[in-house]
Amino acid sequence: MRKLFSIMLALALVFTLFAGCGGQNNEGNNEGEGMGPKVNLSFAMYLPDFDATTQDCVRYLEMIKEATEGTVDFTVYAGGTLCPAPEELDAVRKGLADITFFPVAYGSGNLPESFMLEYPGVNFVNGKAASYTVNDWFNQVQPEEIADLKLLYALGQGNGCVMTTFPVEKFEDLAGRQIRCGDSQAPIIKAYGATPTVMVFSEVYEGLRTGVVEGFYGLAHAGNSVKLYEVTETVVKDPFYIGTYVMVMNQGVWDSLSEAQQKAITETTEKAFDEFLAQGRDADAQVAYDNFEANGLKVVEFDQANLDKMIGASGVLQKEYAKDLDGKGYEGTKNLDLFFELAEKYNAQFAN
Q1: Strand, coil or helix: 248
Q2: What does residue 243 show for φ and ψ, rounded to 5 degrees?
Q3: Is the confidence at residue 152, as pLDDT, over 50?
Q4: Which one is predicted more confidently, 68 or 118?
Q5: Sheet of strand 160-164: strand arrangement
Q6: pLDDT score, position 183
Q7: C-alpha separations of 313 from 21, 131, 189 in Å
Q8: What is the rounded (10 degree) CA torsion for 324, 329, 333, 338?
Q9: Between 230 and 127, residue with greater pLDDT
Q10: Are the C-beta atoms of residues 277 and 56 closer than 8 Å to each other?
Q11: Taking 60 as the threshold, does the pLDDT of residue 214 lie above it?
């Protein structure tokens, strides 16, 4: 009897021990259980970590982490360290990265409908108007080329410029020069009379320094962030420039998240978009131009006659591209008309 009691006591102690251990494990596993599974997603970013756009993206991702009670976290791979910049969209498709902020200009041949927005056609009052226009356009059109991805948001950024290693006083001074640009921007540079040289952003500084290219076509803040003022002498403002970008997530990753996590991400995206994402680099552009002048560069704003030549040379590209899309079975002209309607709406809304 005494032996039986000892055995029962030992079993009771073992049961208590295991029950206690099980309680600790459940407590650890239950953290965020009401929200959904814990995940750490890889974020592929072509810009360096110190760039203002990268910092905006990181701020947005941190908001998602907080909104999902820490269950959706991120590891940032900035500066194209996870994969080369032009391959980041495909990397998300293949699951090599979970999320990316991708410039449409890098999607040559793969983003036919989206490419249309890269051409000059609208003089946006500011970046916020451009971003709301582009984001609304993407949500309404839902381009087939990114239907296999989860679109979080899209941006349209203005404040474009041509930074050159040679003096520029008038539109014709660009003729014959080697100007770096993205794939989608090559026809624009050609229309300006210059020779387009497609080059990823990380190679631009060295290209200008060594004379491989004579100019950079892109965002003012981007040129400032990598100190292109050290290897150029003139900056020409281009009010017709627009760069379009998409923030996308692997669809399988999105589908694996709980409804609560998806809802939190959607609400956070709307909040971040309105608070700081949409306005993009408007404030940074002025900082950039001030810094260019402080470093001895001449900042040129064309008069109306030269601006008319600029848009006269490039303005037909967007409509021609839309007609080309029509011939390929897309609704190019219809979607371009929608773009113009949205631009008019948001230019009026954000004019002040």
Answers
A1: strand
A2: -110, 135
A3: yes
A4: 68
A5: 195-198, 178-181, 215-219, 160-164, 234-238, 298-300
A6: 80
A7: 74, 25, 10
A8: -140
A9: 230
A10: yes
A11: yes
More confident residue, 319 or 121: 319
Two tokens at 49? 């970590």
DSSP state, 157?
Answer: E
How far apart are alpha carbons 332 and 320 in whole angstroms?
A: 10
Which tokens sit at 21? 């251990």
Sign of CA dihedral 63, 64, 67, 73: negative
Domains defined for the chain, CATH in brackets:
39-158+243-277 (3.40.190.170), 160-240+282-316 (3.40.190.170)
Average pLDDT, integer, range 219-238: 95
**What CA–CA distance (Å, rounded) separates 349 from 352?**
8
pLDDT at 265 over 70: yes
> Which parts of the chain are beta strand (E)?
39-45, 72-77, 99-103, 149-157, 160-164, 178-181, 195-198, 215-219, 234-238, 243-250, 298-300
Structure tokens at 48: 């360096």
Rounded CA separation 240/53 (Å):
20
Q: Whose CA is closest to 181, among 119, 227, 133?
A: 119
Give residue 32's pLDDT. Answer: 55
pTM: 0.81
- pLDDT for 157: 86
* pLDDT at residue 33, rounded to an integer: 62
Per-residue pLDDT of 318-328, as tens digits, reads 999 999 999 99
Of 65, 120, 114, 62, which Cα lies nearest the Cα of 89? Answer: 114
Q: Burial level of 316, CB count in 10 A (0-12/13-18/19+)?
A: middle
265-278 burial: b if 16+ Cβ within 10 Å, else e: beebbeebbeeebb
CA distance 66 to 246: 22
- The beta strand positions in 58-203, using DSSP E, are 72-77, 99-103, 149-157, 160-164, 178-181, 195-198
